[in-house]
Design goal:
heterodimer, A: 289 residues, alpha/beta, Rossmann fold, 2 domains, six-stranded mixed beta sheet, four-stranded antiparallel beta sheet, globular, B: 562 residues, mainly alpha, two-stranded antiparallel sheet, two-stranded antiparallel ribbon
């Protein structure tokens, strides 16, 4: 397991900005789901996004990836402004996974990852019908790359398995492999360890380190604090759609406002990770397109 | 992995085998005698020791029963360990009894009284009853996994050849049947054989073979289709039906790209076939054609296809962004608009392009160089007449459409379509061009229909608006749903059923729609994925069926090996 040393973290925190989101605001009628949130992700950095349920984390992700058109604000990747269109965002180099797994259930693991290659391949209808050398080469490359990614996330045994038959933890890995297949510079992971046991969680953080080590930046939404503080170079805490604090895990961990936001002030509460659903006011990714 | 409960240890009733064999024997013996005094009834069944068509069917049913019985517990047990003989015998006995009952009813109805049923028929009927009773004494047993049943390559190829030959002669025979009762009984026979084969596991074994030997199977299928005109001995009556079936199948195959692959509901597809036909007609050398430009036919086909594809783009571009239901309504409207436009471009309400309701008649036959499609040509000593010529041309077109369908389906584009069907939002988020792919499906479907339409115009001699009504679109869609969305074989089967049956069952004409409605309702209830299910569609329709998912995985692995 890779250990994030303080020095390395500091270096990355001061690195080249990859993703810059400025004053992103998302308003649903009278509800301010995301209010003027700015976020910078540097190259090769792991950034954690935390916040209580209903804080607007997933909504913010949807704004970044073009599933929602933000009411205000702009998102730039490597200095280029991203249009709020999912396809353009993927093409520009930002891929994501979903909070509730959204694999193509009746396709095999390999096919799922091959779909991820779609935006990096170009065989059109006529090329496909002619079945010429270009088509065959590209198809073979797609297949090889997909297999490579399955191996990378540790699913080499499940190539021909249907996504819907795979165990939960493997489905999460497959979703990550599918996102990686789009050749991103930055991956956004929405609760990658939701519903996992401690051992699976550990494997997940190993995988995220491994992804980071290939030079990608990672943004992670999580509720599991131990997981996030071990993993991330920096952490951003969202509360009621607004940025509460951005800083190193130590800074965020020791900030009394964060504890208050999660536990409430002076009231005994059971557990921080109560439920994975967002609050009643905030539409989920799957509810409102 | 799912574990299945251990099979109940079967105790075979000792009486089942002798009773069953006796029953099957009686069916065969009875079939050798006369079934009816009247040679006019149900074909000719009146001559002893010279079995007519129905009697041969009865003998075939009985022989299969004998084989299954002996395989269940007897000298053929080595064969029986692979097959689920118990379920096979059950189904076969049921259908033999249905068959014989219908024969008795048929003779009674046609000859006017039960008295016309001869002893031979009663013997066979009694045999069927005995077989039915025996089948209830046969108990369940466990059979081995057919995926392990690997025979030498030449045996598998031989099986394919035999099946294709049976298909060829079966179709030729079915087309030649003049009597509706005999045709119905033939359908009962085929259904009975098919169900018994399915239950016994024969069909799933064939499925394994076809997974391993796709290439041979496809070649054999096309060889058989090409040979078909040769079996007609120069008669063009059946070829007329067959070539209409092919036009219908070609259009259904094109629609299958839109509906089966991209998952878009198109209720006005016939308009694309129609526009192709109108382009073909107006650019033909017919004296009624309204456009002076007379290019050679292959140019006409391309023009028709491109024109139709453009129409598809015009309809698709504004509507494909909305979800399924809206698309269905817009395409439904488009189909009607097309028909009404063709109806009204008659010189009174607009430019005279289509002669309105009169259409464009007297379209001459196609000519490629000196080869005129209207003439009779001699091939291998057998005359090939007008409709046979069109049949062969349409077969080429169908092969082309199937090629397009298959190659798109197995390409990056096909994967994109599946992803869109599975989860449009996720597909979009993974960079799949959802709108573009939907539009592509729509335009490709239209393009192929345009080609088919241009040929259809020449084959039909005239083009009128009332050939392209909504009902035709509905039938195309029904062929796909009935046969199996997204499959090649299924849609061909569906097209043949929906086009051939009405031709042969003329006396049902008034109830045709009622029957098809009923058929579709039953299909939706019992087998929503269609007669020949596409693996993926089957999974989509049975989200909860774990066993199916495991089985499909096994098939995928087997295919990957082959």
């Amino acid at each position: 397991m890779t250990v994030t040393t303080k020095a390395a973290a500091a270096q990355r925190a001061a690195g080249v900005p990859l993703l810059q989101a400025e004053d992103v605001t998302m308003q649903f009628g009278g509800l301010m789901a995301v209010n003027k949130v700015s976020m910078t992700v540097n190259e090769g950095e792991i950034l954690g996004l935390i916040g209580p349920n209903g804080a607007g984390k997933t909504t913010f992700f949807n704004c970044l990836t073009g599933l929602y058109k933000p009411t205000k604000g702009q998102v730039r990747l490597s200095g280029v402004e991203l249009p709020p269109k999912p396809r353009a965002v993927v093409k520009a180099g930002m891929a994501r996974t979903f909070q509730n797994i959204r694999l193509f259930a009746n396709m095999t693991a390999l096919e799922n990852v091959m779909v991820g290659r779609y935006c990096r391949t170009s065989s059109g209808a006529i090329t496909s019908i002619l079945h010429g050398p270009k088509f065959k080469r590209e198809e073979a490359e797609t297949r090889a790359r997909a297999q490579e990614l399955l191996d990378f996330v540790g699913l080499h045994d499940s190539t021909e398995h249907l996504a819907r038959n795979m165990p939960y933890g493997n489905q999460r890995r497959l979703e990550i492999a599918r996102a990686l297949a789009t050749d991103p510079k930055l991956v956004l992971l929405d609760e990658p360890t939701a519903g996992m046991n401690p051992q699976e969680t550990r494997q997940a953080s190993d995988l995220i380190f491994k992804i980071r080590d290939t030079g990608l930046a990672v943004v992670v939404i999580e509720h599991d604090m131990r997981f996030i503080f071990n993993l991330c170079d920096r952490v951003l805490c969202l509360v009621r759609g607004e940025t509460l604090i951005v800083g190193t895990p130590e800074e965020v961990q020791s900030d009394p406002r964060v504890i208050e936001a999660y536990l409430g002030s002076g009231v005994e509460d059971e557990d921080e990770a109560v439920d994975e659903t967002d609050g009643p006011g905030t539409p989920d990714a799957e509810d409102t397109p | 992995m799912i574990t299945f409960p251990p099979p109940v240890v079967a105790k075979h009733s000792p009486k089942a085998l002798p009773i069953g064999l006796a029953g099957a024997g009686l069916v065969i013996v009875g079939s050798l005698f006369s079934w009816s005094y009247d040679p006019q009834v149900l074909g000719d069944l009146s001559i002893a020791l010279n079995p007519g068509g129905l009697q041969i069917m009865a003998i075939a049913l009985a022989l299969l029963a004998v084989i299954l019985l002996l395989a269940h517990k007897g000298p053929l047990a080595a064969l029986g360990q692979w097959a689920d003989t118990e379920r096979g015998i059950h189904a076969l006995a049921d259908w033999t009894l249905i068959f014989m009952t219908l024969v008795v009813v048929g003779i009674t109805a046609q000859a006017g009284g039960l008295i016309n049923v001869e002893p031979g028929c009663w013997i066979s009927f009694l045999g069927a009853v005995l077989l039915f009773l025996a089948s209830r004494l046969v108990l369940a047993k466990k059979s081995r996994d057919l995926a392990e049943a690997v025979l030498p390559g030449w045996v598998e190829i031989l099986v394919i050849v035999v099946i294709m030959a049976a298909l060829l002669f079966g179709t030729a025979y079915a087309l030649g049947i003049a009597d509706a009762w005999v045709f119905v009984l033939f359908l009962v026979f085929v259904t009975g054989m098919a169900i018994a084969g399915t239950r016994a596991g024969l069909l799933s074994w064939l499925g394994h073979i076809s997974l391993r030997r796709k290439r041979e199977l496809i070649l054999a299928a096309f060889a058989v289709a090409f040979c078909f005109p040769l079996t007609q001995g120069g008669s063009d009556a059946n070829m007329s039906i067959a070539s209409q079936v092919l036009v219908f199948a070609a259009a259904a195959m094109g629609l299958n790209i839109v509906v089966g692959l991209a998952g878009l509901l198109d209720l006005g597809y016939i308009a694309f076939l129609g526009s192709g036909a109108y382009v073909g007609a107006t650019l033909s050398t017919s004296g009624f054609a309204t456009i002076g430009w007379k290019p050679p036919f292959f140019v006409v086909v391309i023009v028709a296809a491109c024109f139709t594809a453009t129409l598809g783009l015009i309809i698709g571009a504004p509507t494909l962004r909305v979800s399924g239901d809206y698309l269905a309504i817009v395409t439904l409207g488009f189909g009607e608009i097309f028909r009404l436009t063709m109806f009204n471009l008659d010189g009174n309400n607009g430019p005279d392009l289509t002669h309105g309701p009169n259409g464009i008649p007297a379209i001459p036959d196609l000519t490629f160089g000196s080869f005129n499609f209207g003439d009779t040509h001699i091939l291998l000593g057998i005359p090939i007449a007008r409709f046979s010529n069109y049949y062969l041309l349409l077969l080429l077109l169908l092969a082309f459409i199937i090629l397009v369908f298959h190659r798109l389906n197995t390409s990056r584009i096909g994967r994109g379509w599946v992803a869109i069907r599975e989860d449009e939002k996720a597909a979009e988020a993974m960079g799949v061009n959802v709108f573009g792919l939907k539009l592509l499906a729509f335009a490709t479907g239209a393009f192929l229909a345009g080609m088919a339409g241009a040929i259809k115009a020449h084959q039909d001699v005239s083009v009128t608006p009332d050939q392209y009504i909504f009902l035709e679109s509905a039938f195309l869609l029904a062929a796909i749903v009935l046969g199996g969305m997204g499959t090649i074989v299924g849609v061909l089967v569906g097209a043949v059923i929906l086009k051939l049956l009405p031709e042969k069952l003329r006396f049902f004409a008034d109830y045709r729609l009622l029957l098809f409605g009923l058929l579709l309702v039953l299909m939706m209830r019992f087998r929503p994925e269609g007669i020949v299910a596409s693996r993926r569609r089957q999974l989509e329709f049975h989200e909860e069926d774990e066993e199916l998912a495991v089985r499909v995985e096994g098939d995928i692995a087997e295919e990957a090996q082959a």
